[in-house]
Known about the structure:
globular, mainly alpha, 9 helices
Amino acid sequence: MNNLLFHKIKSLRKQLIIWLFEHSQRIYTSMFKKHESWNITKVDLLNLSQPTFGRHLGEFLDKNNFELIPKVERHDCYHVLCGYSTRVEDEIALQCLCYGNGKRSPYLYGAIILGVAILPDYYKYYYRSYKTGKRAHPFHHFNYKKLLNVSIKDFREAIFPKSELLELNLSYL
């Protein structure tokens, strides 16, 4: 009984974070994102050649039944570059990796603080992700729209030390 209750509460905590992400994203984008959106569709990305970063981004979007979210397209690029899924714990771990890599934003701080507070079960995973970001070459500042035609293999090898590439979950992409 205790195990069942634990999993139910954990599921409710994950649902709370999903709700927070969904509602805060629109507010944050409207308040803080003043640049132009990419105006690129998933189909445009899927038409790029296979080894490109953009093609992998299109496949990631297709697999998850997503389109790029205007003005925050870079976030999905982080998923593809780093191999993180869209599960709640992976979303938080990705923010921790980006923090370790030097990215700073109000949204990132909120996601990490609330994520760790609401789902402390994954603390070791979050910390490992942070350390991975620290060891990687800075990538959070790139203009990803200009990198869509770059080889994803070459891009990852330029960012992550070989030992980190082995640790990243790149098999699902």
